[in-house]
Amino acid sequence: MRGPATLSAPLSVLASGAAGTAPPSLAVNLLDAHSLLAAFGVLGVGVVLFAETGLLIGFFLPGDSLLFTAGLLCTGGPDATVKLSLGPLLACAVAGALAGSQTGYLLGRKAGAALLARTRSARLREGARRAEDLLSRYGHAKAITLARFVPVVRTVLNPMAGALGVPVRTFTLWQIAGGLVWTVGLTLAGYALGSSVPDIDHYLLPVIGVIVALSVTPLALELLRSRRNTTSRSKEADR
Hints:
Helix content is about 75%, strand content about 0%. It has nine helices and no strands. α2 packs across α4 and α4 (about 85-120) crosses α6. The chain is globular, with a radius of gyration of 22 Å.
């Protein structure tokens, strides 16, 4: 008599899964920062940043919004569904971002050009073009630092730098500098906002949109300044 009774719970779980009501813990949206953090915590932050900055297949991952959201979730109260610790979060974020960039660079030195040539992704090809343009226009130091704040470009620039022969010391120095500013800056920005504004987690989507827009501001300002300098030089040449 115990057989059917003991099987009833597993069968009900299977039935609910077949009906499209599987347990929420099994559904992880890789494009949703909150979903990633709820499923994997601070270790997931390190893994995602490593994949986004070190592996070409990770170009679609939400690095900016993940860092900001993770920092914000460090300020949650005791009733919060997701609560992270700031210290371990910063450690995992920095480790993942720095190790990922260095890995991408080393892969680029061996087979970066070939890998980029074989890709069928239009976004990756466009990112490669923008990364090469950054390196040639702004030089190694500024390009490596600014690329951290541009989605897709921060994925492609690392193997591109390796393929183009950027010196190891130069790349390592500036990818560490840019990586620290990017990871620590965005994480602390989320933490500061969560600490000062009550119930800010209810407005995650618009806040993340603003943060992503702000994250590309340094590059936009640099492009504007460069364009102005180019225009002024052309006018002086015409004289």
